[in-house]
Every structure is written in C-alpha cells, then in structure tokens.
Amino acid sequence: IQLESTEGSSSLKIHSMNHVGLEDAVILEKGTKVITPYGEGQILSYTDSCPNHGNVAIELKKWTMADGKSPIAYFGYSYSGGDEKSTDAEKQMYITKYLRKKHDIITLDTIHYQRYIQERQRHFALDLTPSLLYANGAAVSGMIDSGVAEYCEFKSVIGLELLMKQDEPRRRGVRGGANGQNGDDVVIPTLSRVPCSKRDVFQTKLLSPVDKRRLMKFLQISSDYAVAKSIENSANLASGSAKKSGNNEDEIVSTTENESSTVGDVEEEVVTSLNERQLQQGRSLYRPQNKSVATSDLEVLKQCINDGIPFEAYLTEHHKLSENMRNIIIHAMALGSCNAKSDDGPETSSNYTTQDGMNDLCRHLQSLGKFGGTAFLVPLYGSGELSQAFCRSAAVHGGTYLLRRGAQNITLNENREVSGVVLNGCTYEDGEVLPSKHISGAHVIIPSKMLKKTKTLHDSNKTKVRVYRRISIIRGKLLSKSKVGDAGDSDEQRHIIIIPLGDESIKNSNVIHGVALDESVSISPSSKDGFETTVLHLTTTSKSNNEDFRYAHGETVLRHATQSLLTCHEVATHANHDLKELFHLSFSYELEEEIDSSVTKNTNGIHICRDRGMSLTVESAFVEAKRLFNKICPNTNSFLKLSDKMDELVKERSAGQEEDDDEVKLLSSALDMMKTGE
Prior knowledge:
- A hairpin with a 2-residue loop joins strand 2 (33-36) and strand 3.
- By secondary structure, this protein is of the alpha+beta class.
- Helix 6 packs across helix 11.
- An eight-stranded mixed beta sheet has the order 1-24-20-23-22-21-9-12, sandwiched between helices. A five-stranded antiparallel beta sheet has the order 5-4-3-2-6. A three-stranded antiparallel beta sheet has the order 7-13-8.
- The protein has 17 helices and 25 strands.
C-alpha cells in the first residue's frame, strides 16, 4: 500500500511572520527614555519653530553641570513626509524615524529589546500545538500508571478567562482597534474570570443574584450526574473483571449473583448517597452534604441525553440560562467546540448534544480544585516535554527510533496481513547513501493523511476545515494583577482565554481558544532590566469550499483577536501602548478528511490514527491511543501500565549500572574501611 510523504505537509500554509523591533513600534513622546550620541537621556518637550520644523529637548542624565543639574541638548527635525490629512500619530512616527536616522536617537527600550530578544532568543519555547492537561483526566492517570510523570513537571493554570461584552459602551483609547476611530464610544469586550467553583460563583460580578442561583443549581445537578456516572463506571469495571475470573460453571453462577447484587448496591448508592467523596479546594463542596438529590431533574437530564437534544437547547429550555451563562458553560467549562461535528458550514449548537456537553462538563468539574484553583495543568518547558517523556520511557523499555527515514509503503503477505514497512533511503551531508530498508512488523499505525487518495471533482467542491494558529510574543503582562485573583500579588501568566463565536469586532464564525504563558513555566526568558514578555497562542477553525476565503478569513480573525486582547488590557489598566506585539507567526493546516475504508478494506494490521483537530487539552490523544491499543491488544486492561516483566528488566539494568557507579564504589570502600577499623 503506497503512502504519502510526511516530509512537510502539503496542507500546511504559513500566512504571515513578522519580527517587530521596538524602534518601529515605540513613538518618541514626552518622557520617553532614549539613547543619544551623548549618552542616556529623557525627552522633555517638542517645540515647533515653523509648520514643518522644530526642536526636541532631551535632558542628558549621565552629565552633571556645576549647578548640579543635567544639561539639555536640542536636536532639530523637519517634517515633510505627509499632507494636511496626516494624523498626529502619523506625524509623530515620521519625526521618530527622522530623529533615529539623522541624530541616531533611539529609545532605551530598543537596547533592552536587543539584549532580551536577540541575545536570549533560544530561551523561548514556542509550541506549534500547545496542549494542557485535565488535573484528573485520562492523561494524568496514564502518565502516573506508566511512570512517565517522573520525567515531567507541571504547574496549575491560574485562571480561565472569557471575553465578555459590556452592557455600557466605553470610550476607546488611542490604540484604536479592529473597528472605529480614536475616541469613539463603542462596546469593548473585556476579559472576565469564568466562575467555575462555588466560591467563584458567589464572588463574580458578571451575574445577577438570580443567574447565580440558576448556575449553582445547574452545577449541583452536573455534580450529581458526575458522581452517578463514576459509580456506574466503577461497577461496570468490577463486573467486567469478575466475568474474566470465572473459569467454570460454579464460578459463572456466583459471578452472576455477585453482578446482580453489585447492580442493586449501585442503584441504592446512587439514590441515597450522592454526596461527594472528597473535599474540594478550601474544604468546599459542590453541594450541601446529605441534601436530597433532585431525582426529577436527573430524570429530565437523562431523557434529554437519550433523545439527543442539543446541549444549548437543554440549558435554555430546562434551566432558563442567559446567553452569557450558556457561553460560560458550553465554550469555557465544557470546551464544547472541540467535540462539535458538522458536515458543512460553520459549527452550530445543534451539533453539540447534551450527552457530549455533560461528559465534557463533568470532566471539568471532577478536575476542578485538584491542583490549584482551576481544572488544568500546564507542563514546564512546553508541551513538547510530554512526547519527549514518553519517548524516554519507551527507550528505557527497549523501544527503537529510526529518524529522518520516511515510509514508502506497507507490505502485505498473501493473506493481506501486514508484514512490514519499507522506509525511504537517505543521503548524508558527507555523501554517504543509505538504501531503502524493510522493517518487519505485524501492526502499523499511521495517520490518515499518509494514505494516498484519488481526488475527484466532488473533493474540489467539498467543504474543508482548516485549523488556524497565531503565536505572538508580547512585551509585558497580558493580564494585570487585579485579574489574577487567587494568585494574590503574583502576575504570573498561566491563563486560558476563550472568545465565543460571533464577536462583533473580531467577526469570528467559530470559537477561539487562547493560552497565555510566561517565564513561570520556562517558555520565555526571565525578566531583565524591567523587560518581560508573554507568549500568546490563539487557535480557531474555518470552514469553506473557497480556499482563498479560508486563508484570508482565518488569518484576519486571529489578528483582530490579538488586537482586541491588547485593547482589553488598555481598558483594564488605563494605560496606552503598555503592551506591544514583538513577534508573531500565523499558519494553518487542513484537518484530515474521513478515512477511506476502501484503501484498507480486508486488510489486517493497519491502524489509522485520527487527528484530534482543534483541542486545548491532550485528552483526545490519550483516548485515541487507548482505542488503538485495545485493537492491537484486545481483552486486556493494561493500557499504559508497566508489566512485571518489564519492571524486573529495568531493575536488573539499573542494578548493573550501579555497580559501575564511582559513588557506589567510594561508599562501599568507606564501609569496608570502617569495618576494618572496628
């Protein structure tokens, strides 16, 4: 079976990449610290001697006159690059460039920028696919069971923010934005903390008392549903293991009796004991202890799940939740856009069922408060550490990697069973040529994009989905200390940002996911000379059968989203030009299409790995890995669990290494000397 080359994806497209130096971004205004040919100084004033000429007064801080004051130097400038329609900002930018070119006057921030960015650029870790972990999800459980967690370090996400609309218009600052002109009264969305826990709901100012009560009631029902599901899953696992242990008729009969008693116990426990098994953060509970369960509400929920009712319709009709509250639950807490499926057109609420929504929401609630104030963990040194950790673990247990060798095709035997893979040859820089190589194996796991497909006219008119990402390096802290909340005086940037679809200024047809990180997780350099940065990741999707429209629309949406977030910071801190985008990379790639079963029909041993698409966490990757594992190794419950045989081999190998350890020899020698002395 012929395979497509994986050396660079044909669907990957880089839209824009810009490296903005501060000398191009900072305007020389009154009070700006600068570097002149005579040393450091500070701009005092601008004086126009005539319409197109003037002088700038700069106080030289490094010089001291006899009277103890610093001297003032005057530098002339001329303005002839515009017309009467030029704005003050355009005129000021022209003067800034003139002073830099004629008098070699640059801002002090430019020097800091060169030292910070250019000299320490290898201290950045920019993930192309940033991923987080649920604190109590399948990823954490798998890493603990496999021992991979020992290779990684994590920190909890500080806050989950949602871009919300304000009821009253605010006056836009000098930066402007995606719409409007300077000084216009427009509605500016602001970043607001998502009230996930009981404490957050009571403290938030986003909701009215009535909405708070409705939200708390819904969260209690969701918590009860989560507890009931966990008890049911535990009972299913127990009954499944009991069935496997039955080897004769007597054991099978006893197993059946045990199973029926287990089901009865579960039903009784669900009805009478839906209290939480553990205290949440700060010894809090989602629901009052020993409070009776609203069985009627649970029955309504189960009925909606069985009928396949959309999640948004369930929230609207049965809980009377407002639009803002639905956005909080669907987009921020359940991350609903990750699971919504649609054949064509933009994602709609009808594609996200109540069952999907409750499962995603319960995953969030069960992880909430496990570590920190949110439900998410972020790996130190970037998401790439997760794959590296599994690679290290596989190498310890005998795994082998062949790098820089693409796969040509999959070989089959006469029974159409996989017999191996043929790898491409390669040529090294020194001229050495390696021929193609056949690797034997009974199972092959490949992404669907590697299977060659015959393109038809229908494919060219088919609606395609692309994932768009924008990576930005921003000078300063995107979220101020006043928004950090539980972190006290800390201004560390570990935040998730959700922008619901349909924002008027951004014009996004799908939800946008954002992650803001800084040096607290070692993905950017530490602060130096007051210069600090935040790495911002934005991700969204776009659907259309017009390729040019998809490219332009997705890139524009993320650019407007970045600008809106910077404007939100200005509104919150009442500071202009405090944040600046120093660097950005915008790219997109096409999501994999449905798997063509005709390519692998009647073939054993080929396993297709599905793309997780636009996902903020790695949960779907672990679910997909478990699905593939169960296909290759059926009737087993040992996914990501170390076998006893492997443990013994690792211990033996470690014991052999300890014998050659110099420190072990030194300690052994010291013990021998002590015994001899006695």
